[in-house]
């Protein structure tokens, strides 16, 4: 099979269109995409663990400290991109 006859398995999402793609498609800015998605992941993580206070407050505080420490946001960003 000649390479000119190969077709992609799926069509790219319009908001993820690469520069030079289809005419009129918006340019993809990786920096803004990663920043936006990291903020989304950060908010989701913050909401997933209760605020410390009451019984188990020290444990919750330790969990929040570990969970909300910076870095390690690329894996969830890639998972979101794959949906």
Please tag this protein with its features:
mainly alpha
- The count of DSSP E runs of length 2 or more, i.e. the number of strands, is 0
Shape, principal axes of CA atoms: rod-shaped
> How many helices in DSSP terms?
3
Query: Which percent band covers the strand fraction?
Result: under 5%
Low-confidence runs (pLDDT<50, min 5 residues)?
8-12
Series of secondary-structure elements, N-terminal to C-terminal: HHH
Q: Mean pLDDT across all residues, rounded?
A: 77
Percent helix, as a range, is 40-55%
Distance between the termini: 30 Å
Number of domains: 1
Largest sheet: none
Radius of gyration: 20 Å
Structural class label = mainly alpha
Give a structural overview.
Helix 1 crosses helix 3 (74-81). The longest helix has 19 residues, at 30-48. By secondary structure, the protein is mostly helical. The protein has one domain (11-81). The chain is rod-shaped and about 60 Å long. It is 46% helix and 0% strand. It is built from 3 helices and no strands. The chain starts with 29 loop residues before the first helix and ends with a helix.
Outline:
The protein has 3 helices and no strands. The protein is mostly helical.
Describe the SSE topology.
Blueprint: H1 30-48, H2 57-67, H3 74-81
Helix pairs in contact: 1-3
